[in-house]
UniProtKB/TrEMBL annotation:
It comes from Caballeronia sordidicola. GO terms for molecular function: dioxygenase activity. Keywords: Dioxygenase, Oxidoreductase. This is Aromatic-ring-hydroxylating dioxygenase subunit beta. It holds the Pfam family SnoaL_4. InterPro entries: NTF2-like_dom_sf, SnoaL-like. Residues 19-149 form the SnoaL-like domain. Gene3D superfamilies: 3.10.450.50.
Length: 166
């Protein structure tokens, strides 16, 4: 019987893990409450934000449903979502679980499952999307930021009116 060599996993200190969890909570609350400028403030200046399908992600394809390269594009998405979108009123809830954190140079690789629920005044609550966040988080001063956020949906089918960030 052969055994594989054990890989040593660097433990992430609790204060770092809690800081990352706070960033995720801040991000979700900003989206759920429609505070898109606050959502944009969760990213670094040179951040990447993508919403893509699991198939494209696994194949390493750059094709994305939403793609923002840099904070200016992220802020433009925030403005467009809050100021120009016309849609029926709805309540969104982002549920995040299954977080994994590992050290990546001067930052952290973070993965977490997400589920987005939507409630409209004339409908039952429904699942809008599920998937996994694949992120790189960095610390600047005492704040945590997303340097990269890739939202990977579990399905090829997604709402045709994806406007709000995931």
């Amino acid at each position: 019987m052969s055994t594989l060599p054990q890989q040593r996993v660097q433990t992430v200190p609790a204060d770092i893990r809690f800081g990352i969890m706070d960033l995720y909570a801040e991000y979700s609350a900003a989206l759920d409450e429609g505070r898109y400028e606050d959502w944009a403030d969760c990213f670094t200046t040179h951040a990447e934000y993508r919403l893509t399908t699991k198939e494209n992600y696994e194949r390493g394809l750059p094709i994305a449903i939403i793609y923002c390269d840099g904070k200016n594009m992220i802020e433009d998405r925030a403005f467009t979502t809050s100021e120009t979108t016309i849609s029926q009123p709805r309540a969104l809830r982002h549920i995040v679980s299954g977080m994994s954190v590992s050290v990546d140079g001067e930052g952290y690789r973070v993965g977490a499952d997400f589920l987005i629920l939507q409630t409209m005044i004339d409908r039952m609550t429904e699942i809008v999307m599920s998937g996994r966040y694949m992120d790189r988080v960095v610390i600047d001063g005492d704040r945590f930021f997303f340097e990269s956020r890739i939202c990977v949906t579990d399905t090829l089918l997604y709402p045709t009116s994806v406007v709000a960030p995931v």
